[in-house]
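Hey, quick one: can you model this chain's 3D structure?
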Amino acid sequence: MGRLEGKTAIVTGSGRGIGKAIALAFAKEGAKVAVVSLTPEKIEETVGAIKSAGGEAIGVKCDIAKPDDITVAVKQTADAFGGVDILVNNASAHAANVKPLTEVTAEEVHAQMDLGPIACMRFMQAVYPHMEQKGGRVINLATMLGIMGAGLLAPFAMAKESIRTLTRVAAREWGPKGITVNAICPFAMTDGLMAMGKKFQEAGAGGGGPPMPPLGRIGSPEEDIAPLAVFLASGEAGFLTGYTYMADGGGAIDAAR
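Sure thing. Here's the predicted structure for all 257 residues.
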């Protein structure tokens, strides 16, 4: 308890799933949290859960496809809490289409890029002035599907893998400022994972997508992903930057490097 005491965190896509689990875990460790999401009802749920547990949080409605929304979200957080110490880029597009590469359109790739690495980059640019003088933590959520080159998911896999590249570039550039930038590739039970499985079935691809990992189960956002995010946001991870952490039960063994 208290590993993030005195810190302010922005967690995007924290109305549900992995983002919500991270927001709750951060608050439990003492961070003041900006719950950033597109759906007001989901924002209220997460903020309410944090406050009920004795934590401090604000809700910020934000469409990550809109640059102005991102600027406003960061400003609201800084105005409310006096700065920004931690950014978790969790929000992104789900795997919208399951189709062969020969049928993928440039528009589908652009849509995934806008809600993936471009939105991440904009958030990172917006928080940088708040971290430049004092250091900070940036955690980007990617996927093992990009590393594996998962079939039938080209736009989604391409966008998510670009997030890892963005992570490495920022880690090199921002390291001298004391800002660490790392990525997590989770494999956990979320609405997005279930929707992707359904799309594979509808496309007649059977049990496509990632196979069951060696540990024999799908991860839990609360028990398997959020604790790793807390560690990377804490002082204990101050000498780790530019890396990808595979919270996937061994699903992509040896891919972290």
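One thing worth noting: The CA atoms of residues 48 and 92 lie 23 Å apart.
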